[in-house]
Amino acid sequence: MLPPLSAAPIAPPGTDPASPPPGHTSGFVAVVGAPNAGKSTLVNALVGRKVAGVSAKPQTTRRRILGVRTEPGCQMIFVDTPGVAEADTKLGEFMKSSAASAAREADVLVGVADVGRAGDIEVAASLARGRNAPALLVLNKVDTIPKPSLLPLL
């Protein structure tokens, strides 16, 4: 039989196994961008295992998918989001709203853009506008265009 809650001993500071050690940080990293830009592939690579489905078919991710990576001193919760595209159905509106919400709530924003598609960089950049949190732009599929064409994108 368990003792009453009030009788349970309280662990001294820094010894509770449920508490992170001093100096440990954690945060949410939203991975956003246009459909089929490579968001799920990037999340799988960053987490170190397959947590999100990957397909050549656009809009495979229909809801947020979380993947966690733990390192000494930090824990990152990656949020794989649906691709942001013009919404012409209720499902499309839901997916666009889900990605925008994840972008607003995240501690860090990673925008993924397929360099072969002109509008991808703008889609990723639009989700970062007006935020005070750090944002990164990841250019994906750089091996699909000539190197001289890549420099102006940077």
Helix content: 10-25%
Instruction: Write down the overall geometry.
Output: globular
Neighbour order of strands in the largest sheet = 2-3-1-4-5
Radius of gyration: 19 Å
Order of helices and strands: EHEEHEHEH
Task: Please count the beta strands (DSSP E, at least 2 residues each).
Answer: 5
Beta content: 15-25%
Average pLDDT value? 75
Distance between the termini: 64 Å
Pick out the low-confidence regions.
1-9
Largest sheet: 5 strands, mixed
Question: How many individual helices?
Answer: 4
Oligomer: single chain
User: What is the structural class?
Assistant: alpha/beta
Summarize the structure in words.
It is a single chain. The protein is an alpha/beta fold. The chain has a 5-stranded mixed β-sheet with strand order 2-3-1-4-5, with helices on both faces. A hairpin with a 2-residue loop joins β2 and β3. The longest helix has 16 residues. The N and C termini lie far apart (about 65 Å).
Short description:
The protein has 154 residues and is an alpha/beta fold.
Which features does this protein show?
154 residues; alpha/beta; 5-stranded mixed sheet; 4 helices; disordered N terminus
